[in-house]
Amino acid sequence: MSRRFAALAALAVVCAGVELVAGRGMSPAVVWDVLGGGGDATERHIFLQLRLPRLLVALGAGACLAVAGLVLQSALRNPLAGPEVTGVTPGAVLGAVTATALGLAGWDSPLAVVLAACAGGCAGAALLWLLAGRGGGDAAQTAVHGVLVSAVLGGLTAMVLLVEPGELGSVVQWLVGTTEGRVWQHWHLLWPWALAWGAAAWLLAGPLTLLRCGDDIALAAGLSARRARTLALLCAVALTAGAVAAVGALGFVGLLAPHLAVALFGADLRASLPGAALVGAVVVCGADAAAQLSSRLLAEVLGSGRLTLPVGALTACLGAALLLVVVRRTPSRTF
Amino acid sequence: MKALFSAPAAADGTVGARRPARRAGGWQPLLVVALLTVSSVCALSLGTPYVPPHRLAGTVLDGDTTLAGIVVTELRVPRLVLALVAGACLGAAGLVLQEALRNPLAVPEMLGVSSGAALGVAAPLVLTLSLPAAVQPFLAIGGAALGGGLTLLAAGLGRSPSAVLLTGAAVAAALQAALLVLMVMADQLDLQLIYRYLLGSLSARTWDDVAGLWPWLLVAAPALVLCAPVLSVMRLGDEDAEALGVRAQRARLAALAIAVVLIAPVTAVCGPVAWVGFLAPHLARWFNPAAGAVRWLSWSAAWGAVVVTVADVPARLALAPVETPVGAWTALLGVPAGVALMRAGGRGRGLGRVRRGTAGSGPGGVSLRPGEATGTEDAR
């Protein structure tokens, strides 16, 4: 187990290294120079003010999304319940887009965007709660309602975007999820939030492991299943909202990373929750590095500098492939 | 899932719930006709220039001699016809999917069919490949078949309704992500166009667009007539259907194919008008809970036409000079209304069972409704 953690941590370091040198504009040698204290002002600025915060935001957001996904999957006992299908991500997107359209928040004031995304995410989850709470916490029902809530919120987002079409260009990048142009301000907003709610998730690891076994066993073990599930959902919503506010609706990390984590570390959440955080960080960071490398390649091949591949595209492709594997691997199970 | 559909059944007095349902069934044709008339007149007369309803006929006969005549015959009438046809197609396709998968939530949007079709249409737009307009429906069909097939295969052909649903949601999300990537690559002007298209819009459609739909309708209509009786048998459940000589899996694939043929051309012309395929079948069922799949099919098509035509009026006029896409309105209104109807349908089912228990099995005596089927399957 600890060997796996070590391997994963090493992988994270490698990904971080690749991410630092992958961008356009500076060669690896220059990066090394800057690390040693050399380089001119522009290079130092690129490295310290752009690449470093981008790397940290990618790591943090990946960890947040992965933990949120694992918590959701455990609480709802549903291997397909990522934040994307429970109304949390669409709600956060709606909140941020609405705030931008109303002029309350701009892309130059990240704090307002974070707050608006959190409010939206909570609203999405609350809507789900209103719809599903009556049914007594049945897992499949909650998930189904989540899909419907996502649909309504998506429609609202579309309306807002059409009323305010000037924002469309900048928002679309963010709808698919990207780490481009993230600065220290984003990181300073992300990490306290992530740390607080990550700690809460860690405290819930034991009850969540019981919930994974089913309500009957959890009740027999003396756990108030309903209360534990509520707390877990709250925790997942907060983590997702923070991550969405930082990097946008990064597709399928909340679905992909938990499955990898459970495969690596087993179903005991006390081990696999930190594992999921690591896996999520590795996945987002690696995908970002790959996206940067490939957009660099594309730019060289096509000869146009303005084409950039958003990270969300890569994670969504990976997630879709994994999804098929997951569903096929559990043929007899009714979700 | 079970609680979602059956919880209210026991609580409410079945006798009390019975009368409104029957009365509503009687009102259905009247309501459909009234709504269609009102929204058609609104669609034809409101806007700039305003044509008073009593002068509509004269204006149409004027043809292209007056400005109002040109606007009505060349812009408003094709738009209205397109709304009617598209709505009917989407409503029928929704019912076929829901009945075949015995899942009240099996909607084109949730199965990835709509997103696939949209991807097939949007990709050449963004990549600036110039293709003849006749190829577009084929691309849409390819995309829709890809999305729907992927979902059904991944979920194991309707194993459990919520599994199909969640897989479909994930597949649809993946296809949406692919679309968003395409949109990121597009420039600002293209982006606006594509975004409008992706939400489903009827603006600036002409007779050419309507003409593009007819050949597909000619294919789909006989297929619908042929598959309707099979759908009623499918409602009995897989085992009973097999016993009656229906190959369930094959019938399901055929239903998906029909739905794809119905949805893809509509998507190619006016974009994915969302959630019509969800609302229309539930409306048809709510008004006439005791009827079979055959009658629901026609009513579902009628309700689909009503929904799209009604939604197109605010889409055209709400924020007037700016057009809002009709798909956004159908999504906003369709999902809450559909969910409410689905819940009410659970109540209606309880009544259906009681009534049949007392009256014996009539011609529409198939007692398994989609909601009930999901309930039993989940309980198993």
From TrEMBL, chain A:
GO terms for biological process: siderophore-iron import into cell. Keywords: Cell membrane, Membrane, Transmembrane, Transmembrane helix, Transport. The keyword Cell membrane applies. The chain crosses the membrane at residues 55-73, 85-105, 111-131, 143-163, 190-211, 231-256, 307-327. Gene3D superfamilies: ABC transporter involved in vitamin B12 uptake, BtuC. It comes from the Bacteria. GO terms for molecular function: transmembrane transporter activity. It is a multi-pass membrane protein. It holds the Pfam family FecCD. Belongs to the binding-protein-dependent transport system permease family. FecCD subfamily. This is Iron ABC transporter. It comes from Streptomyces poonensis.
Automatic annotation (TrEMBL), chain B:
One of its GO terms (cellular component) is plasma membrane. The keyword Metal-binding does not apply. The keyword Protein transport does not apply. GO terms for molecular function: transmembrane transporter activity. The chain crosses the membrane at residues 27-46, 80-98, 110-131, 137-157, 164-186, 213-233, 253-278, 326-346. It is a multi-pass membrane protein. GO terms for biological process: siderophore-iron import into cell. Residues 352-380 are annotated as: Disordered. Keywords: Cell membrane, Membrane, Transmembrane, Transmembrane helix, Transport. PANTHER family: FE(3+) DICITRATE TRANSPORT SYSTEM PERMEASE PROTEIN FECD-RELATED (PTHR30472:SF37), FERRIC ENTEROBACTIN TRANSPORT SYSTEM PERMEASE PROTEIN (PTHR30472). This is Iron ABC transporter. It comes from Streptomyces poonensis.
